[in-house]
């Protein structure tokens, strides 16, 4: 029994894992996201043995369960997890295993290409590539020339069985490398190393893709703030947390706490509507954030990847 705790909207994680699990004969519990206490109750009542979700949400479930007096490790049958949609480290894999008693497997996919694409086997030594469906290449991000196995660059994908919308040499923006050594599991597919970052400035926050340009566009529609901002991303507890520091417009600067709170709440509401993810906002005085002569470096990512 697999509990699918990915979103079931336009994001293909939920439906992709749902239909894939049904294809192999598994019973699917389509809980989607949110209402964590209820998800834990269903996990216990329906004797769930596997889950698909983001790694940060899985750890968050463990924290919520502990507050409920429930131990994921001892009070449920959950033992396997298919986790992805955001950066995560081997340290987080160890934490999931030690604190929850769950064996976590990495998975990679994109909504544009087909949803779930690659996944780890039981050896956890890279993503297996289904060569009859996908042709991967690794390009140098600067020269755009192909790189040999073992060298990291941008993952470029050609889909071999897409008829309605052919996808040829699609640049994913993700950094990885092709592994051509045999996997101990015995499968002969090529493999990809786990992702180490992006070639662009995209952030992945709780499974949602966020671009600084989206934040800039949203802020430009708010007259009380200036166009200068900084983004700080950290992992507090099990969940990603994004703080946006925004300069007040000079004409909106006020000594009244009530005015500043009203502006901050309005900016948070606009950003949440635009990004589909919760954002904390910190207002700063006019002229206090850095200015950039070249490419603006607006992101500080403190997460350990």
Indicate the overall shape. globular
CATH arch. level architecture of the largest domain = 3-Layer(aba) Sandwich
Question: Structural class given helices, strands, pairing?
Answer: alpha/beta
The whole-angstrom Rg is 21 Å
CATH superfamily of the largest domain: ANL, N-terminal domain
Uncertain parts: none
What is the highest CATH level, the class of the largest domain? Alpha Beta
Average residue-wise pLDDT:
90
The ordered H/E elements are EHEHEHHEHEEEEEEEEEEEHEEHEE
Report the β-strand fraction as a percent range. 25-35%
Describe what this molecule looks like in 3D.
By secondary structure, the protein is an alpha/beta fold. It has helices spanning 13-23, 36-45, 55-67, 72-75, 90-100, 212-219, 257-275; strands spanning 2-4, 28-29, 50-53, 80-84, 103-110, 115-120, 127-128, 134-139, 153-159, 170-176, 178-179, 191-192, 197-198, 203-205, 208-210, 225-236, 239-248, 280-284, 299-301. 25% of the residues lie in helices and 30% in strands. Strands 2-1-3-4-5-6-7-12-11 form a 9-stranded mixed sheet, with helices on both faces. A 4-stranded antiparallel sheet has the order 8-9-10-13, with no helix packed on it. A hairpin with a 4-residue loop joins strand 5 (103-110) and strand 6. Helix 3 packs parallel to helix 5 and helix 6 crosses helix 7. The model has no long low-confidence stretch (mean pLDDT 90).
Could you give the topology of this structure?
Layout: E1 2-4, H1 13-23, E2 28-29, H2 36-45, E3 50-53, H3 55-67, H4 72-75, E4 80-84, H5 90-100, E5 103-110, E6 115-120, E7 127-128, E8 134-139, E9 153-159, E10 170-176, E11 178-179, E12 191-192, E13 197-198, E14 203-205, E15 208-210, H6 212-219, E16 225-236, E17 239-248, H7 257-275, E18 280-284, E19 299-301
Parallel strand pairs: 1-2, 1-3, 3-4, 4-5, 16-19, 17-18
Antiparallel strand pairs: 5-6, 6-7, 7-12, 8-9, 9-10, 10-13, 11-12, 14-15, 16-17
Helix pairs in contact: 3-5, 6-7
């Amino acid at each position: 029994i697999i509990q699918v705790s990915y979103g079931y909207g336009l994001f293909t994680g939920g439906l992709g894992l749902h239909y894939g699990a049904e294809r192999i004969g598994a019973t699917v519990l389509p809980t989607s996201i949110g209402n964590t206490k209820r998800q834990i109750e269903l996990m216990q009542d329906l004797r769930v043995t596997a889950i698909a979700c983001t790694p940060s949400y899985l750890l968050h479930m463990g924290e919520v369960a502990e507050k409920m007096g429930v131990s994921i490790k001892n009070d449920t049958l959950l033992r396997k997890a298919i986790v992805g949609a955001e950066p995560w480290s081997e340290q987080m894999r160890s934490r999931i295993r030690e604190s929850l008693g769950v064996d976590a497997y990495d998975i990679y996919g994109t909504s544009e290409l087909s949803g779930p694409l690659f996944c780890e086997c039981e050896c956890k030594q890279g993503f297996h590539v289904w060569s009859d469906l996908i042709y991967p290449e690794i390009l140098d991000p600067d020269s755009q020339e192909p790189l040999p196995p073992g060298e990291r660059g941008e993952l470029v994908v050609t889909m071999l069985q897409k008829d309605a919308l052919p996808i040829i040499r699609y640049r994913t923006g993700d950094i990885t490398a092709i592994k051509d050594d045999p996997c101990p599991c015995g499968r002969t597919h090529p493999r990809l190393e786990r992702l180490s970052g992006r070639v662009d400035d995209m952030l992945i926050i709780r499974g949602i893709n966020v671009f600084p340009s989206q934040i800039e566009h949203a802020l430009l529609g708010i007259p009380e703030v200036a166009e200068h901002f900084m983004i700080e991303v950290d992992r507090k507890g099990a969940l990603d947390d994004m703080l946006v520091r925004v300069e007040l417009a000079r004409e909106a600067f006020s000594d009244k706490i009530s005015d500043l709170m009203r502006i901050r709440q309005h900016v948070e509401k606009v950003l949440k509507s635009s990004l589909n993810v919760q954002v904390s906002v910190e207002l700063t005085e006019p002229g206090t954030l850095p200015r950039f002569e070249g490419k603006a470096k607006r992101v500080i990512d403190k997460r350990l990847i």
